[in-house]
Amino acid sequence: MLINRDVSKFVYILFIYLLLCNSVAQKIYVELNNTVPCVRLLNATHQIGCQSSISGDTGVIHVLESEADLEWPLSKGPNPPYMVLLESSLFTKSIMMKMKNASSRVAGVVVVPKTSPPEFSPHTTCPNENTGVYTETYDHNLAHCNTTVWNPRGNGLSYEEFDFPVFSLKEDNETEVIKQCYFDHNRVVNGSGLQYPLCAMQLFSHMHAVTDTATCMRRSSMDFSTSPVMVCDPLGGYNVCAFIRPYNSTAFGHKENESVVIAAARLDSKAFFLEDSTGAEGSVSGFVTLLAAAQALCEATQEAPRTRNILFAFFHGEVFDYIGSSRMVYDMKNNMFVIDLDNVHSILEIGQVKTCISINVWTYKCMDIRSNNNESVTNLVKNLQSSTAGLNFSFVETDFSQPLPPSSFQRFLRARAIPGIVLADHQTDFNNRYYESFYDNAAHLNLTYPSNLSPEEQLEFVTDTAKSLTEVATAVARTLFKQAGGNNSQVNKINADPKTVTQMLYGFLVRSNNSWFQVLGSSLRCVFCLSEPNPPQYYVGVAKSSHQANALTYLVQYLLANLTGTATNLTQSQCKKPDELPNESTYLYSYLWVQGMVPPNSTQRESFCVRTAVRLVKAVSPAFDLGDYVSKEYSTWTKSQWKFIKARIFLVASRDLEMLTLGVGVAVLFTSLLVTYFVSTKADVLFSSVREPNNAAY
Amino acid sequence: MTASVFFGCTFIAFGPAIALFLFTIARDPLRVIFLIAGAFFWLCSLLLSSLVWFITVQISNKESSSQQKGLLIFGVVLSVLLQETCRFGYYKLLKKANEGLLMLSAEETMPISIRQLAYVSGLGFGFMSGAFSMVNILADSVGPGTTGIHGDSQHYFLSSAFMTMAIILLHMFWGVVFFDSCEKQHWWSLAVVVISHLLVSCLTFQNPQYVGSLVPTYIIVFLVGLWAFFCSGGSLRNLKLCLTCKDKDFLLANHRPR
């Protein structure tokens, strides 16, 4: 079976190669290269996303001009099925639902992102409603967003299931080709019928997994050959964690007399088209603020010992039912992490922070009067309020009746009532008009640069957004310092660096291939020092078994390492094996080889070794370790596998011409059979006039 | 375009060839062998001409389109000349083989006459030539699209199929005439065969004006077919006899013991 599969793969690749190298195929098809598909995701109960048939879906292209124009593909058009081309302003729930209901006439949908609509959020109205702390058993009034609907603009489009493919086009040249083809061949002229040949498109995005996670995991493991074929992959990645005072990384479980304050932020986000996730307000603002706070704190705390340790935790996969934070809580409960829940003193989480007039402070009021958590929370809020002295904003505590917004803190609360706060810029529901959508990008965060700057100058330019986030970072750093028992007199020396913040915002949202990221990056893990100028992908991706994280995780890891670690004099080989040196220990620290700057007089980079407490901690949902694929407690999200995804456009001929060709062919065949039969039976007679004397065999 | 176009074009291009093979060649294993050998000789000529083409294209200036066009014309002419040379080589080989076969076989008469060999070898050339012309195009005709998005004509598949049918028939007729003129040492008719082959190949430069290339080609097919008919022993009288069903009387009258 193994050989058959390899042979068939080889034959398949040869076929595709021949097809692509074939000049006849080049006369017929125009391949579309920069497409982003909508793929299928599965969880314990549902499948969401899009699916095409196994040999692709072909449809006549129709460019939709308005919602009323939908009548043409859905009922009036004479050549179904249609491939509907939409601009981003028409990509709404009502249009997509109408097309979903008439899916026999719709072969697929192609979205061309242009101008941002005024608001658009394809996420649900109540994000992560089943895996937070507010469940039915906890409090009926607070469950399922009965009190506050967090994302009222959410239309749930990302969570719908479509049985036709939906693609998004990235590049504009290809869209022009498609529109030109449409205008040349598909336009209705003066109400008369359409003339064949028509311009059509074919989309291939066949997904292997169906129904739900339990089904696809069962099907994946049923294959008993030596190389099992996976039908779907669990989502997951790595959390980035750094202690101010690191512990021995091999000693798991409870640490006596250690008390840790966790400062958390979320790394990931998603969009309808997963590879196009940006998440500027949703996640980038939060973790950039935390990175800047970490840098400020580490600069200030070199000398003074503190009573409590601080853990900077950047959780990945939070959008998909809190993959990262549920994993950390699970590890803490099962003694698989360097500390456990008893060691956690309090939690400070940074949520969506964009505007900086006032940041709202969400606290969790514990109902249990036996614990002294309420006092701790009050202390925390007091520290927070006092940290804004001299800054241009203030913290506002929200009303007692408001529940916590969706945040990683909720997963900790689900396990134990720990005091903590969540910082966000919204008072009740989200201010973010583009929550978990493609439009939550640099422009939405008001990152505007003067037009005459080069990319390097833009990197250094401090935007207003950067200034506001710097202030928040300063306040957070000071709060953490006081929470960790630091000396009050030192507090006002802690300040976040606006240049760092603006460089981070530029790198994460505008252009990641900039000189600062290249300096701080790794030459080995060259995932982001390549020529790719675009921002990294914020979607969490699948958990790879090969210990490879995605570009975003490495970026955050190396940034945190450089901002909080110390540069050493080790050589590259020493950096790989530092245990041999007397003062270095891989139990406490990790050693990363950083590219470094290019000095003005030479071309070689001056790389160096950074000693840092930053570690990558695996973030895969515990449901997959436990084998409980219908778990209601943990995330069960998986992504389907597929063979290939592509799109192409071409002309289609009318059915009549095809039938005519077949008819002519059959007629020619029959005629030639008849004539040949006639000639061969009469051959003696027909070819008889010249008889050769010595060879008369016929 | 779809399966119907695929089958339609296959039947158009290979219909006469399949019919001829089924009714006249398939029953006799010796004819099958000589058919395949003929196909192989055509393949040899293609190998040689493609080698020369490949080398000259690599040497040439890829940017200049006039040079590329000139190179194409040179390639076509060279290929035609090489095919006819291989046909001549095959003829020589068959003559030698016939003497050898006669020596080996127990019968007094040759198992296969030179005229039949001419027909079979011509058909072999035609099969292989048709296959190389058409298979690429047929493979792409199965897909959902048709030509035209870059401005080509829509009738590409159909006209390729008709052209291939013409070429197969022509190779068969040329085979008959060629061998016959070699037997009778009529070198001028040999030259006419080569010139008509060149003419048909150069007519394809008229594409995509398919009318301009297909109509003259079919006229040439008809003319060469007539010539081959007369070369291989046909006459108008025989044809009339066949068509008016008086052939049985003729056979009885001319019956000879075999």
TrEMBL record, chain A:
GO CC annotations, alphabetized: plasma membrane
| Protein localization | Membrane
| Keyword entries, A-Z | Glycoprotein, Membrane, Notch signaling pathway, Signal, Transmembrane, Transmembrane helix
The keyword Cytoplasm is assigned to this record:
no
PANTHER family to which the protein is assigned, alphabetical: NICASTRIN
Q: Which family does it belong to?
A: Belongs to the nicastrin family.
Which protein are we looking at? Nicastrin
Q: Species lineage, top-down?
A: Eukaryota, Metazoa, Chordata, Craniata, Vertebrata
TrEMBL record, chain B:
Name the principal localization, coarsely classed.
membrane
Which GO terms fall under biological process for this protein?
Answer: Notch signaling pathway; protein processing
Q: Per UniProt, which keywords does this protein have? A: Membrane, Notch signaling pathway, Transmembrane, Transmembrane helix
Where in or outside the cell it occurs: the entry states: Membrane
Q: How is this protein annotated for GO cellular component?
A: gamma-secretase complex
Coiled-coil zones: none
What membrane topology does the annotation report for this chain?
Multi-pass membrane protein
Where do the TM regions start and end? 6-25, 32-59, 71-90, 117-137, 157-179, 186-206, 218-236
What is this protein's function per UniProt? Potential subunit of the gamma-secretase complex, an endoprotease complex that catalyzes the intramembrane cleavage of integral proteins such as Notch receptors.
Quaternary structure note: Component of the gamma-secretase complex.
Q: Check the record and name the PANTHER family matching this protein.
A: GAMMA-SECRETASE SUBUNIT APH-1 (PTHR12889)
The similarity comment for this entry is:
Belongs to the APH-1 family.
Protein name as annotated: Gamma-secretase subunit APH-1
